[in-house]
Amino acid sequence: MFTLDQLPKSIQTKINEIEKDTESQQLIGKPGYTAIDESTLYDSIISLALEKNVLLKGPTGSGKTKLAETLSSIFCQPMHSINCSIDLDAEALLGFKTIDNKDGKATIEFVPGPVIQAMKKGHLLYIDEINMAKPETLPILNGVLDYRKTITNPFTGEVVQAKKGFGVIAAINEGYVGTVPLNEALKNRFVVIDVPYVQGDVLFNVLKEQSQLTDEKLLKNYVTLSADLIALVQAGNLSEEAASVRALIDTCDLSLFLPPLRAIQRGIVEKLEDDREKAAILNVAQTLFD
């Protein structure tokens, strides 16, 4: 089990020196990420402590968001999130102007978005599915992501310099439907961390700790189910979301009150659209749960 004592003393000092924001505790992520290879978490911590931007690369359901939350917890830093889509624009990133009424007078106020908030407060910024955004939207962040850590707010003209402690974590799922290749100039601004699927004994412990299911025989069967689904994903016969740890935890919880096959139907199968994929999962499940 990874502990902070494994980090070099200089990195521990850097983490401890970050100013803690006691007013935004509700934005600090919950820990819980567990990896097959501890270097995944270790290297992410080192990179953030050295003020590098971290790009988490892995399949859907491999735990990229949970890793980001765990990093937020370790650094005791609130985290502001951006969920990228084709509709993402500068206002969603930086903020927007609105009309406010003060003392009977209408005034124009700027409401800061997640980028501006994280920079000014020295918080973490999490950009989920960064390659879902339109390529023309992201260059606005170039100055934020390089050594300058600054941006000129186009809505106010203010030059914003990131406060000490500011860090950026992004997540990417390459080849997923709706994604586009990340611009090389943008990608070059990140340290890339591979986040593989959690499997075997590590997955067993994750399910035991994060689900409500306590039946060890059932938990072991779900670990086997996960391994079989991952094999189908890697062979190109199943969508990545079918092997999601999040979906598996849902299924474990349902198993407290539903037969396993019905829990799998509700927690995993019905989240998919393709009838052939649904049938494939049920075929695998029926060999494990009679």
From TrEMBL:
Domain ATPase dynein-related AAA positions: 53-190
Any Pfam family the entry gives: AAA_5
Similarity comment: family membership: Belongs to the CbbQ/NirQ/NorQ/GpvN family.
Record-given protein name: Denitrification regulatory protein NirQ
Lineage: Bacteria, Bacillati, Bacillota, Bacilli, Bacillales
